[in-house]
Amino acid sequence: xxxxxxxxxxxxxxxxxxxxxxxxxxxxxxxxxxxxxxxxxxxxxxxxxxxxxxxxxxxxxxxxxxxxxxxxxxxxxxxxxxxxxxxxxxxxxxxxxxxxxxxxxxxxxxxxxxxxxxxxxxxxxxxxxxxxxxxxxxxxxxxxxxxxxxxxxxxxxxxxxxxxxxxxxxxxxxxxxxxxxxxxxxxxxxxxxxxxxxxxxxxxxxxxxxxxxxxxxxxxxxxxxxxxxxxxxxxxxxxxxxxxxxxxxxxxxxxxxxxxxxxxxxxxxxxxxxxxxxxxxxxxxxxxxxxxxxxxxxxxxxxxxxxxxxxxxxxxxxxxxxxxxxxxxxxxxxxxxxxxxxxxxxxxxxxxxxxxxxxxxxxxxxxxxxxxxxxxxxxxxxxxxxxxxxxxxxxxxxxxxxxxxxxxxxxxxxxxxxxxxxxxxxxxxxxxxxxxxxxxxxxxxxxxxxxxxxxx
Amino acid sequence: xxxxxxxxxxxxxxxxxxxxxxxxxxxxxxxxxxxxxxxxxxxxxxxxxxxxxxxxxxxxxxxxxxxxxxxxxxxxxxxxxxxxxxxxxxxxxxxxxxxxxxxxxxxxxxxxxxxxxxxxxxxxxxxxxxxxxxxxxxxxxxxxxxxxxxxxxxxxxxxxxxxxxxxxxxxxxxxxxxxxxxxxxxxxxxxxxxxxxxxxxxxxxxxxxxxxxxxxxxxxxxxxxxxxxxxxxxxxxxxxxxxxxxxxxxxxxxxxxxxxxxxxxxxxxxxxxxxxxxxxxxxxxxxxxxxxxxxxxxxxxxxxxxxxxxxxxxxxxxxxxxxxxxxxxxxxxxxxxxxxxxxxxxxxxxxxxxxxxxxxxxxxxxxxxxxxxxxxxxxxxxxxxxxxxxxxxxxxxxxxxxxxxxxxxxxxxxxxxxxxxxxxxxxxxxxxxxxxxxxxxxxxxxxxxxxxxxxx
Lengths: 456, 456
What we know:
The structure is a homodimer.
Chain A: E1 9-14, H1 37-49, E2 54-57, H2 68-71, H3 82-89, E3 97-103, H4 109-123, E4 127-132, H5 137-140, H6 151-169, E5 177-180, E6 185-187, E7 197-198, E8 203-204, E9 219-222, H7 227-236, E10 239-242, H8 247-261, E11 272-281, H9 285-296, H10 301-311, H11 336-349, H12 353-363, E12 367-371, H13 373-385, E13 391-394, H14 401-416, H15 429-433, H16 441-455
Parallel strand pairs in A: 1-2, 1-13, 2-3, 3-4, 4-9, 9-10, 10-11, 11-12, 11-13
Antiparallel strand pairs in A: 5-6, 7-8
């Protein structure tokens, strides 16, 4: 294969005991995985040996305890804070990217910029920030909010938050620190820059108390699929994790996002679109199906119903008959894009509530692929080559075994087809993803100024 | 020695390249230590092999760039965020405590409770939180404050912050999680508790999304020496890191703090007082003095003056003559206790500004001990036996060598005298410090209720 051939990017989306809601009951699952460092170390090593680009953690800052009967039958209530965990995982890995979700709604940009820059230094240039806004009431109530901020305000704040964080990451020029013992000069004051941000939501002076990190900026990831989310992503994201059910839907989204980039002066391949994929792998189609059915049988109806309610942005479906088609859902302030996604799916396939909750129990609105390594590779290849995706975020049904199977069976198949790397291209997450390293804004401004003067 | 004999507790207060302001220029210092993980891993291993109770990091959330000429000659402007670093260090250590400073002024209690609980799970019960309030303008300006909150308000908020954090740490009873694959029950809903805190500064519902940690609560550390600080410590702290220049001062503080405990129903030995000690160690007194002088000679006058200004809470001394006695300092809103400490020192010894900055260049107001392993052990023994201290926070002049010398020379001397452990007593920081594990408040309340009913 050509060295410059476009290849699939792979993220390992890790979640406690796995993505299937009943994963923790799987005989081979690590039931206490959410707070077991050795479990995550093992999973991270599996992903790194398979040459995944990154491991990725979602996040929420609450226990969603509105339905305790359901919650107490899942492994979702207790887990490591992602940045704490990734900092530790940086020590037991060498090449794989480390992407954590942190909400702009409940944090301060200075703290966030600092933590991700620290993690980037720690791992030698492997950190990534999944920028999200928070939309659940249970989270708002842990942060002195009386009610959740409006969708539009959340995004406005998110954009300004991003601007501050990126500005702080440029506080120091890359070569600011000479640390010359002889002269006694530790850094060059001319290469330190004060941000002096004064906006609607934040006033942040800077500079950051961390040197510019190996990647310049940690990789910025986003997941929002609403129009506001897509526009913010086109401006700022370098990776998008997204949920699609069909190739057509994926292609529409892909075209939409890539077409928005030009207006921000960005190239199409500088934003990687990576839909989530929930793979159940068998030596035969029948074996794969049997594995999936065995997992589905572990779902208690109480759990399935509650999951559906959560995934639809807080809408309560417990009063509707389980075996009748999904009713019209009233639109709420919470996650609009997920509501639409679920409704579209139910309409398209005329699903009952029970069928819908079984459908999303694993993939939660993402694409489920149940099949052989070859058939799964076929599907990834098609989505990739027909411009539905630049890569995939692999959501293993259970951990560690589910990821192990993908690494042992599907990755080699992709490699045989020349669709996936056999060795890391670079040292940093940016290098492996094929993303440019941002030039420091102050260096850029000075360069442009010199060019203007020279042109006179 | 008796198994129950009271012994010295030791913390290793780590700081980039060491505590001396010119440490980074020392021939054996790791000049880029502040952002070098291998450096910190080496230092943490040295401390653990010597059986230190904990490593400890101070923190600030700004670059104090008011005097760039000075700052650019120090290694203080860039370093890891402490929790990020300690999470990584948890992986390369097994027994030593991991204490990070995090300000209550610029954080949310839910985020903080979660991070420290996560770190406690990560290290198997070794985390500690040094609770501080922030008093510098440079920090306030990074967090959308127009000016810094008043001293009294900061402490009021800190107490409420602590109450919320401790309450969140009790969200789950210790045995809440059964994770029984057969029955499908992951946790017992009756053992989950909602805090529902509604106070003046915070409204936090809870529960925390992390199981109760190995220590129940991470160890709570404080450093405030003002009256408000001391009262808060008596209520809530389990360790106090403090700065003293004389034994008498240390004894007065020790008696004061210990006498305040009874009114909160606490026992004197459940709060460990650990003054900072800046040791310069030589085989002879002359060698130790020569080592110290060599370090002092590396201080640029610009650096010394600026340090003094910072340490006195932002008071500008650059207009006063260097070689005249320290003038009266106007009291500012920032760190009152540190201003008083410096003034007392200057008065007591009739120091000039230059002499004062040279004096604090290393220890920054803490006790400097320059001598042989025996004479340093003598002094620690005296302070310990005459109730000036329960232990010490060792502030090595430069790293890693300075800590290495303490570990190799002073620790064995303390061990020979039966004053320091030769093996860790327990698995957790609490066990090693001899601190009780807090009983979950909800379990305690239920126990008390049963006792009341039984007594009727």
